[in-house]
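Sat 14:20. Reprocessing the chain from the morning session after the first attempt stalled halfway. Input below, unchanged.
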Amino acid sequence: MKPTVLITGAGGLIGGYLVSTAARWAPQWNVRGVTRAEADLTDLMQVQELWDRSRPALVIHCAALSRTGACEQDPARARRINVDATRALAAAARDIPFIFLSTDQVFDGAKGQYVETDAVHPLNVYGQTKAEAEQVVLENPAHSIVRIALTAGTSSTRDRSFVEDMLRTAAKGTKLTLFTDEFRCPIPAGPLVRALWEFAAQPRAGLYHLGGSERLSRWEIGELLAKRYPELRLWIQPGSVADYHGPPRPPDLSMRSDKLQALLSFRLPGFRQWLTNGSSEGDDPWNHSSR
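Finished this time. Tokens:
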């Protein structure tokens, strides 16, 4: 029988892509995707029941409260989901490989081009809870953390990726201000999960970064997307993070992915490159770039 991989957050963007692409990129695994409706990972009894049913040989922990606004509004809930649930799962997985998906938002954005040895300094509740969870995971020297960059894709509910958020906002006739001085390394979900599956086949302990190979401003990202989605053109406008009033926004969360790239059989694409030829390369199971 095939060994079982347990994928939490299967109803989310990355978890959903992992489940849907397993037959292509990970046929050696029996995939068990778990959604929030199936198991409350903040309930220790439900975690144990899930563990007893699944008996996994590997865990890829994607489940999180990842909306920064929701985390700011309810920090206690964010901590239960992002820290406490991670602690319970990591403890259950103490004797098997455990891959925890973290975020570029553990950094403050003052430097950019972050590498795995850079100190974390989160500015928001989401980043703080993910940084706390990283420390929990690192207590087991055999476990792995993969920090994920801004991810594009099409989720089953059409409301999980930043691209979907932009399209939904534009459809309401609401202007989107995209900062020219806020930078990320966006990556499409297709190549991101391919990289995760390759990493899962040879999991290495410690910290890794996984993002696109191109540093882009939010405005540059919006301009590129508007070429693919013309309906965005009328509703995006440039702005500066200096004029933003709200929770702190890290200005430059670009990351270098050289450490993980060295383990992969393919080159991580830049966002511009993928929008140009990604669909022809078959990197996205939902082919969101043509929708």
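Confidence is low (pLDDT under 50) at residues 279-283, 285-291.
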